[in-house]
Write the structure tokens for this entry.
Amino acid sequence: MSEKTVIPLLNKTDEESESNSNASCSSCGGGCCGGLGIKAGSEKDVVFRNVFLYLAMGAIIFAVAYLAMKLLSWINP
């Protein structure tokens, strides 16, 4: 009854904590990510694709928020 169960996720060793100290650079699949998730040394078409993808998502969010505002002001004048 006095046996202790060791949970590996809660008991990290010193070696594991030292290897994860620079996790921000190794987490994106090689190379450090800059702004908008663009890796250093990316091809030009990948950079343009990422930038235009984020611009399109921003435009969609802005349009939906604007339409929701107009709809709410139309429902409750």
User: Anything to note?
Assistant: The mean pLDDT is 76. Helices lie at 14-19, 23-26, 44-75. The two ends are 69 Å apart (CA to CA).
